[in-house]
Amino acid sequence: RALTLVRVVRRDEKVVPRQLQAGSVRLLSMAERDRGPDDLLEELQDAYPGDVLAVVGRYLQRMAGATEVELLLADYSELSMERLDDRGQIHAAAPVLIETSTPGQCYLTQQPIVTEGIGGFEVHVPVTLRADRIGVLQVGLRGRPTQPEISHIKQVAATLAYVVAVARRFTDLFERSRRRADLELAAEIQWELLPVLAYQCDAFSLAGFIEPAYRVGGDNFDYAVERESVTLSVTDAKGHGLRAALLSALAVTATRNARRRGRGIIDQAFAANQALGEQFGGEDFVTALLLRVEYATGVVRAVNAGHPPALLLRNERTIELRFPASLPLGMFADSGYDEQPLDLQPGDRLLLGTDGLLETVPIGGGEPFGMDGFVRLAESTRELPPSVVVRRATREAVAYRTGELRDDLTVVCIDWRGS
Questions:
Q1: Which residues are paired to 197 by β-bridges?
Q2: How many Cβ atoms are within 10 Å of 239's Cβ, its own excluded?
Q3: In degrees, to the nearest 5, what angle opens at C-alpha 77 toward C-alphas 244 and 312?
Q4: Based on CB atoms within 10 Å of each CB, which residue in 60, 116, 175, 360 is the most buried?
Q5: Measured between alpha carbons, how far is 90 from 177 in angstroms, rounded to an integer?
Q6: CA angle at residue 254 from 252 to 260, to 5 degrees?
Q7: CA-to-CA distance for 235 and 241, rounded, in angstroms?
Q8: What is the pLDDT of residues 35-81, one digit of tens each?
């Protein structure tokens, strides 16, 4: 069967009827055709959190003839994804493994993937907030999608990423969907402290990751993007469990408070040192590395409070950065902290970690992962983006351990491109 499209034209314009296969093109009313992403965002803002995917589904059905829409959210450890239905409920099917599935490859590569099945086609597009990977939007279509249709679905997925990120402030729906197991209380405290796990702009790309995801407590990282600079910190609290989580929470909150009052990284270290000393009496402490990088010059100012070395990858070289260390935060009220300089060049990469990575040893004994392992990891992932590097680092540590980690570990990767 065929349809003939007839449109009203000016007298001097030719009319060319076009024959279209029924079902290959969906005819939209003028009201529908005028609705776009702005209308979708308005609908999403007004929707109940559990109906967010239903709103996206109705929109894509109107605009692209979608037959099915699913949202797959990555779990905290980025090993699998859970399917959410249009009521915001976890699908009964087993989790989708990231390493071995088509949606997982979309998630890892951050590229759209189109597959053909018995009932039509499936489009998989990443749901990502800047560089922070949240999951995958899976859309079923009867016909093969065109490039403009794929671009439109990508735009919908980008809108959905912002909605999901904001929604965690007023609903537990999406957070609950990301958990393969219950978080321990210490891990709950830590995940609430973490910033968005990845960020990119013209000057740099940044990503961080913490392992294990469900029972960590002492490690943390934080950053703040300003107009002229970015400030970054990596911290590691003494011990494990709830007490370490409380130490970490106080250290991160104290540095944030000083930073938001316009204080530099030296004053941030002093503020954290004072707060920890007052509350824990010098019995416990937190190691920290605080950095401030200026966009215009690439100049880094670093404060090292007893933290392990970092790595600098420049051209074909891997350089161990041992910033002169002051005492860890919280040990003594009169501890002094100084800035150490470093000049970054476009193309440089910084890798920061905690001692949980360096001190990982195989079950049954053996040599620790150490700086040699850290260097091997850095060199083998040199061409990969930061979000993949930090994930690979934690996976390699688990593999080296050949089992559950004894200590939590954090890895942060920064690619510097310059202003």
A1: none
A2: 14
A3: 75
A4: 60
A5: 7
A6: 100
A7: 15
A8: 556 678 888 888 888 888 899 999 999 988 999 999 999 998 899 99
